[in-house]
Amino acid sequence: MVDAHQTFVIVGGGLAGAKAAETLRAEGFTGRVILICDERDHPYERPPLSKGYLLGKDERDSVFIHEPAFYAQARIELHLGQPAVHLDPAARTVRLGDGTLIAYDKLLLATGAEPRRLDVPGTGLAGVHHLRRLAHAERLRGVLASLGRDNGHLVIAGAGWIGLEVAAAARTYGAEVTLVEPEPTPLHGILGPELGTLFTDLHRDHGVRFHFGARLTEITGQDGVVTAVRTDDGTEIPAHDVLAAIGAAPRTALAEQAGLDVVDRADGGGIAVDAGLRTSDPYIYAAGDAAAADHPLLDARLRVEHWANALNGGPAAARAMLGQDVSYDRVPYFFSDQYDLGMEYSGYAPPGSYDQVVCRGDVAKREFIAFWLREGRVLAGMNVNVWDVAGQIQQLIRAAAPLDTEKLADPGVPLESLLP
Predict the structure, then answer these.
(1) Does an H or E element contain 381, and which?
(2) What pLDDT sits at residue 29?
């Protein structure tokens, strides 16, 4: 039973945490809601950091999830700039960096993820960057503008979503860009070789250079400033700045210290939660980038590092904390904008899980939908410069029924007509 005397604490001031706090109030919870944020900024959204804000199209204030006054109006107690450093499940307390001890009745861990660091010599040089926080984006925005003015060269380690989006932004500013990627195509672990080449061609058309099949082994400099990078195949590439975009690691230290079940890094990492987003402790929940959830629809444990998962997972966890029956089965979804290409991806189809890729539309013009299938059933779909179809793609994934692939590939056949 939830009552006004209870205290619900949320650790993590990103989208999942902020939306969870909002949902607690929207669902009628009248007890204390405490939101602990290790950053000094109010909770904000991260997609603009590599998209509109980085490009200079969006103002700084546009990234914030709520107006600052919202938290006081909703009686949400904000602790800004205060990391949670210790969790005691037996006592049901959280200790902050300044020594403050906060007792909770239920707790949500929305601790997010942090960028993986390059483990090579030279990472301490001026000109080595990561992109995860607003402060990173503010700094990188100025760097890209400067590189564009001076015809400077940015080397990006990693051709995943962040690497590609920053490459697009850098070229828009006019900077020279080289992407170093160990796989044979960008996004190889997400899209496979069939569609990864689409992004190779897109970026090459805009002047980006790729160095596939290689990893950075050293960043060299002079007078403390980056001058070049070296790769494991012996190549030296001149550089004024370097961006490490080699993925993100879930922030599980607090959960591990408290003895909660976590998933091995080899299996994706994250705080293990059930379909109701409850951890191995019945009073502690987890959501967002840090949570590895049993997915009822996909019958797999999955950790999803994208905006939609935080947007929907935070509220789902809040409802579970309130005692509602929650089965979090959202189809994984993400989007990206690069130059004149916009895309949405729904589903989950890592290489090895599918046996066929079917495209409808004009791939050469970059106006099409790609489907990843196994035994005729849609596992995932990506719509590229084709809009208002993500919902239908997700319905096909949920249906899990064998389809006529000729009809699936035919743009003249409405997607909704393929539903059983």
Answers:
(1) strand 377-384
(2) 97
CA 51, distance to chain mean position in Å, is 13
Q: Are strands 128-129 and 7-11 parallel, antiparallel or unpaired?
A: unpaired
Amino acid identity of 358?
Answer: V
- When the pLDDT of each residue in the chain is averaged and rounded to a whole number, the result is 96
Residue 256's pLDDT is 98
- Tell me the two tokens of residue 311: 């947007």
- Residue 41 tokens read as 């900024």
Average pLDDT, stretch 360-374? 97
Helices (H), 227-328: 253-257, 307-321
Residue-level pLDDT at 4: 76
The DSSP call for residue 85 is E
DSSP-assigned states of every residue in 241-268? EEEE-S-EEE--HHHHHTT--B--GGGT
> DSSP code of 47?
G
Residue with tokens 């949320």: 10
By percentage, how much of the chain surpasses pLDDT 90?
A: 95
- CB half-sphere exposure, 325, CA atoms < 13 A: 0
Q: Which helix (H) or strand (E) element contains residue 202?
A: helix 188-205
What average pLDDT does range 10-20 have in this prediction? 98
Distance separating alpha carbons of residues 397 and 411, to the nearest angstrom? 18
Residues 6+ positions from 137 with CB-CB distance below 8 Å? 48, 49, 50, 53, 54, 131
Does the pLDDT of residue 194 top 90, yes or no?
Answer: no
